[in-house]
Write a sequence for this structure.
């Protein structure tokens, strides 16, 4: 296992030190993993107003333990990452610990330098995503922390509770894919700036709504929430087939159907099948926008045997027919 302890001052220095720990090359902008350690890269992107980002696309051949020391500075790290083939992933924020081993997860969250953070990542894990270092000046100006102070304090106070993770939607996953694929072709700064800001915007919009629900959500244990997340992942795993039944999903979550429906609506903000349908239509919209599929092909891909039914459902959601899109 590789252990790496660090104080985060800036991402360039972090990548330089991390490259030394991994015995991997770093050219000042990009860390390329040594074949013995894994495969892939971590790339530095310097943005405007003191923001820095790391775009990552790699998998590991070794277990890694990362420990970021606590700091008294008011800095934040925004993370939007997809993890695949996970045997074990554990994050410890302050004294609070959360872990999962369910194969994959795509989530967004925010950490503060006021808490030390430790990550354990098992070998075989694939990581694709972005981390953004946010200065207090940027946070105060762009997110109006003074007006939303209570929201951020309540959020950061949750530490690793299941509620701090925002499940990545299809649009966010598409943005991550675009950022990773930009490696093959140099892009202008505004390309990275616009997409990263969109990710942060979506997260902060979710955060305000989520904090309103926190008092009600405290009725549920972290184990409840973790099991619910596994059921939610199964619900959205394949739109080409009928949605799993409430009975099947509640068994997955190890709770009664009535409790499952209650906690699902509290955490995700919508009834189970409304949530499924919204994500189903978002998937259809992105497939159509790619220009690679016909309306009929997209309808079948999201589980509609009847094209008229698909068109009607799409229009109800987006107020336009799929053919016009």
């Amino acid at each position: 296992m590789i252990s790496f302890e660090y104080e985060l001052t800036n991402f360039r220095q972090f990548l330089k030190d991390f490259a030394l720990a991994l015995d991997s090359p770093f050219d000042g902008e990009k860390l390329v993993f040594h074949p013995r350690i894994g495969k892939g890269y971590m790339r530095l992107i310097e943005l405007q107003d003191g923001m820095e980002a790391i775009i990552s696309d790699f998998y590991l051949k070794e277990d890694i333990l990362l420990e970021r020391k606590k700091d008294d500075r008011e800095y934040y790290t925004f993370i939007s990452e997809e993890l695949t083939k996970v045997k074990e992933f554990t994050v410890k924020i302050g004294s609070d610990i959360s872990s999962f081993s369910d194969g994959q997860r795509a989530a967004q969250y925010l950490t503060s330098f006021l808490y030390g953070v430790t990550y354990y990542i098992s070998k075989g894990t694939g990581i694709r995503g972005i981390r953004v270092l946010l200065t207090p000046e940027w946070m105060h100006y762009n997110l109006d922390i003074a007006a939303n102070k209570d929201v951020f304090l309540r959020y950061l106070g949750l530490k690793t509770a299941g509620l701090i993770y925002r499940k990545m939607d299809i649009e966010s996953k598409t943005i991550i894919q675009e950022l990773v694929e930009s490696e093959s072709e140099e892009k202008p700064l505004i390309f990275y700036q616009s997409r990263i800001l969109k990710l942060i915007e979506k997260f902060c919009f979710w955060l305000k709504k989520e904090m309103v629900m926190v008092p009600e959500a405290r009725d549920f244990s972290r184990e409840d929430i973790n099991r619910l997340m596994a059921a939610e992942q199964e619900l959205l795993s394949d739109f080409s087939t009928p949605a799993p039944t409430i009975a099947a999903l509640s068994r997955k979550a190890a709770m009664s159907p009535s409790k499952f429906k209650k906690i699902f609506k509290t955490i995700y903000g919508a009834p189970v099948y409304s949530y499924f349908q919204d994500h189903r239509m978002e998937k259809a919209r992105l497939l159509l926008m790619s220009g690679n599929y016909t309306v009929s092909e997209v309808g079948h891909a999201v589980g509609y045997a009847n094209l008229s039914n698909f068109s009607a459902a799409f229009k109800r959601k987006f107020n336009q027919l799929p053919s016009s899109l």
